[in-house]
Amino acid sequence: MILKIYASLLLLFFVNSVWTRTVRQVYDDLDPDHWSRYTSECPQECFCPPSFPNALYCDNKGLKEIPPIPARIWYLYLQNNQIETLSEKPFVNATHLRWINLNKNKITNSGIESGVLSKLKRLLYLFLEENELEEVPAPLPVGLEQLRLARNKISKIPEGVFSHLENLTMLDLHQNSLLDSALQSDTFQGLNNLMQLNIAKNSLKKMPLSIPANTLQLFLDNNSIEVIPENYFSAIPKVTFLRLNYNKLSDDGIPPNGFNVSSILDLQLSHNQLTKIPPINAHLEHLHLDHNKIKSVNGTQICPVSIALEEDYGYYGNIPRLRYLRLDGNEIQPPIPLDIMICFRLLQAVVI
Q1: So which residues are the signal peptide here (predicted)?
Q2: Which of 78, 151, 155, 182 could form a disulfide with 177 if both were Cys (CB 3.0 to 4.6 A apart)?
Q3: Distances from the Cα of 92 to the Cαs of 67, 77, 88, 95, 120, in angstroms?
Q4: Element (H, E) at 349
Q5: Residues 19, 145: Cα–Cα separation, whole Å
């Protein structure tokens, strides 16, 4: 199970290496005699590297409009410009686009021509971070695998906008203006292969509804969440990395076994209002509890298995897998209690 999870995460994290291999393969198949023709097709505002004939670099050029995109382009870089609109005209011939980076522009929802994005049938990666969007743009290309919309002004998610994005593995909405009311029970419906959901730095007071069941990474840092509902994580049985740093969680807001979830390997609860360590699962490997209000730690109480039973079975039993424990910024005085070390025999680092 854990090996499968890590394999999926490696696929997600190393898309850049896949991209490099893909471009290199295209380059190897290219006839050098045709380079001059490719150069003549290159928009004068942009750079077309001969070694990567399917990439077009128009970033940091002060552009206010998107130039005509040649048909051969797969990878389009338009970040750090002054672009305000997305119209169909520049993309008429660009039927092979896989990747568009439009980060750090001035694009608004009203500046996106109706249907222009959904017509990019082969698009896999769409980056629209740091623009002026107030809602998730729609409709979107059905083949998308990554959608990055961080650092906009998004407060609205249109109904059904994600319903056909079955291939989407990453959705980044962090640092926007989302309220609880923007996340309905069917908001994420259709995202059957989503692995990473980032809704950090918004204005949520509650845990979001109906997270896709296959989600591995859930990032909810820097919100105002106070309560974890009972059995919340039973609906996302594969969640492995959970970040809830900088929220308003207290002991009363966490059910007795709220975080006693076997799938969670990395749990981050830093900068909350906890006075004690919540029950954890023996499979947990990393636990961040720094900058809470914890005054003492009792290893016997927090140990996910009986210490006596652990002595009987030794390393052949189900001993806790915790390797990293962070407790600094609390009211705990060293030294580390001996029963912590007896319980968590695999600990490699404790910050106190």
Answers
A1: 1-20
A2: 155
A3: 11, 17, 6, 7, 10
A4: strand 349-351
A5: 13
Share of the chain above pLDDT 90, in %: 80
Residue 26 has pLDDT above 70, yes or no: no
- Token pair for residue 39? 């150069």
| Residue type at position 324 | Y
Q: Which long-range contacts (CB under 8 A, 24 or more apart) does 155-158 make?
A: 155/179, 155/182, 156/182, 157/182, 157/183, 157/187
> Of how many residues is the chain composed?
352
Q: Give me 90's structure tokens.
A: 């520049």
Listed in order, strand segments (DSSP E) in 122-247 are 125-127, 146-148, 170-172, 196-198, 217-219, 241-243
Residue 114 tokens read as 């109706």
Tokens linked to 151? 């650092």
Q: How far apart are the first and last CA of the chain?
A: 32
What global pTM score does this model have?
A: 0.87
* Cα atoms in the 13 Å half-sphere on the side-chain side of 339: 13
**What is the tens place of the pLDDT at every residue in 29-58?**
445 555 455 566 899 999 999 999 999 999
Residue 23 scores a pLDDT above 50: no
Tokens of 316: 């052949």
Cβ-contact 163, 183 below 8 angstroms: no
